[in-house]
Specification:
alpha/beta, binds S-adenosylmethionine
Length: 396
Amino acid sequence: MKSLPANNPEWLTKKIIKKGGTISFYDYMNLVLNDPNNGYYGSGKSNLGSKGDFVTSPSMSDDFAFLLSKQIEEWLIQIKRKLIFDEKISLLEFGAGDGSLMSGIFHYFLVNNKNILKNVCFIIIEPNSGMIKKQQKKLEKYLNLGFDILWESLDDLGDKTLNGIILANEVLDAFPVERIINLKDKIYRQGVSIDKESGRLFFEEMPMTKKLENSIAFAQEKLDINIPPKDAPEGWSTEWHIDNKSWLKAIYKKINNGILLVIDYAKEAKKYYSLSNSNGTLISYKNNKIVKNVFDSPGNCDLTSHVCIETLIYDSEILGFETVGIVKQGEALLSLGLAERLFEIQNELKNDISKALSRRESLLRLVDPICLGDFKWFVFSKFKNKKTKINSSCIR
Ligand SMILES: C[S@@+](CC[C@H](N)C(=O)[O-])C[C@H]1O[C@@H](n2cnc3c(N)ncnc32)[C@H](O)[C@@H]1O
């Protein structure tokens, strides 16, 4: 990526100048997404959904939460039965966005299996206070019904370990990433600088850090990938998810017995770090359109990147997680009863054709292979008794 024109707000200029005029891309992404006053998520100005800046599965269709809840119910029943706990089972959601998924889960259980709710403790881990406010508003009706939802960090949970289910839908793609670039057959870390005259942002090379070098070297050695790929041209660049490992480690430490479900845009390593993918997967969205320049309107757009399938699996398994399975979202939702759901919608809304069509369209977008249907569901488990096996209907 070359230097690009930008629309750089004063708050960001001040932060970059304070750090000496150049910050790493990782710090840039962290600021524009998570700065408490001006970041896209930090300030809560993010707007999810088909009328907002970008869609996530739960913000687009309530039927996503319905179908996923069927999987959650199956897991909850098995965990309760096989592991016979006296204490409550936790249902923990990372990065709950506008609260649509959690709200849909409550709705599902209130309608379909009210009894199970007595055994479940609901936790949301959300670092951005702007988003917590949105989630609290969306979930107000369930809070008013007397359900406990804890907004905590993993650290707040203290030494207590959890048994249960952990969800992370489109959360890893919002983690700040490092950018690296191939220049004269050497890898550099990419930073972000400000042009003193125009005030515009541009990419600038920085030396690699030991942490970044080691993380890439480790993955190359263990996964037999080349970064950059052989014969990579000048300027070949990509991103590196430097925080995934520590995130997985913190979860692994915290759960005693349970399932971790990660759902995200994901790419195989051989495609991610290939000659044809010469610019990584970083993408910015506003008003449901791609913003070509990742420096455009910082703090007002979503900024996201795909996860690498093999590195996520490797980082999980090396900690001790077992990979139960990986499945495309389209297949997972079909296995959980998407076809029956379509039929139910038709019957339920037979007197309101336009509503039925719109529900049907949203539901089909969840499985569209060129859209959300290509998302990957990663199901990992950790059970103290290694012989414990759990059935997951989402994986056929
Ligand atoms: C792309 S949105 C996804 C929202 C929601 N899961 C959905 O699917 O609609 C990313 C969410 O992750 C949150 N987030 C960002 N960094 C996080 C972190 N380190 N831990 C937990 N949540 C995080 C953001 O504030 C935001 O709520």
